[in-house]
């Protein structure tokens, strides 16, 4: 029972959920001034998101796109979520890189300033990633 290509979307959704959990934990830790735990969570969230990107691109390279089959009110809702998810997903790449770079250079004042944009955008992307997966593969099936 190996991992098949058709399992990848589920793996992708799990990785998105893991990123969301790690980002939330990382935020809780820094609010409690636990820098070590904050750093560990955020670096794990970066790793999880990078793994997601590899799985996501692999799947779409071999499989192509999956069309949404829902009708009625869920259709515009699905596309609104998908479009905002996609635009923000592209935007967070340079945001995350800059946030991480500033932290690793120990420019924590600047890190904090950009991180306040990076964190909510990244959380939105990972949570809507799970929502899009759920709507695409499980809604009404
Ligand atoms: C790219 C992933 C990261 C994100 C999204 C992130 C997010 C954040 C956020 C939102 C804050 C502000 C918390 C508040 O409002 O009080 C913060 C503060 C902080 N982060 Fe990160 N962080 C990341 C990576 C790191 C890493 C790798 C370190 C390494 C040491 C780090 C160290 C710190 C420190 C020391 C603060 C406190 C800064 C201050 O209060 O002046 N962060 N981070």
Describe, in plain words, how this protein is organized in 3D.
The protein is mainly alpha-helical and 141 residues long. The chain has a single domain (5-137), classed as Four Helix Bundle (Hemerythrin (Met), subunit A) (Up-down Bundle). The chain is built from 4 helices and no strands. Helix 3 (74-104) packs antiparallel against helix 4 (108-137). The longest helix is centred in the middle third of the chain and has 31 residues, at 74-104. Protoporphyrin IX containing FE binds next to helix 1, helix 2, helix 3 and helix 4.
Q: Low-confidence segments, ≥5 residues, pLDDT <50?
A: none
Order of helices and strands: HHHH
Percent of residues in helices comes to: over 70%
How does the overall form come out from the CA principal axes? globular
Largest sheet: none
Give the percentage of residues in beta strands.
Answer: under 5%
When the domains are counted, the total is: 1
Indicate the topology.
Blueprint: H1 8-31, H2 35-63, H3 74-104, H4 108-137
Helix pairs in contact: 1-2, 1-4, 3-4
Bound molecules: protoporphyrin IX containing FE.
Quick description:
The chain has 141 residues and is an all-alpha fold.
């Amino acid at each position: 029972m190996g991992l098949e290509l058709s399992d990848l979307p589920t793996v992708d959704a799990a990785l998105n959920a893991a990123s969301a959990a790690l980002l939330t934990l990382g935020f809780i830790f820094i609010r409690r001034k636990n820098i070590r735990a904050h750093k560990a969570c955020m670096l794990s969230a970066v790793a999880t998101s990078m793994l997601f990107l590899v799985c996501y691109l692999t799947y779409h390279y071999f499989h192509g796109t999956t069309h949404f089959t829902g009708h009625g009110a869920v259709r515009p809702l699905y596309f609104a979520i998908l479009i905002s998810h996609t635009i923000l997903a592209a935007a967070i790449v340079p945001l995350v890189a800059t946030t991480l770079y500033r932290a690793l250079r120990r420019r924590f004042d600047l890190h904090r300033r950009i991180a306040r944009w990076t964190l909510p955008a990244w959380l939105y992307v990972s949570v809507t990633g799970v929502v899009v997966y759920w709507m695409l593969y499980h809604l009404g099936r």
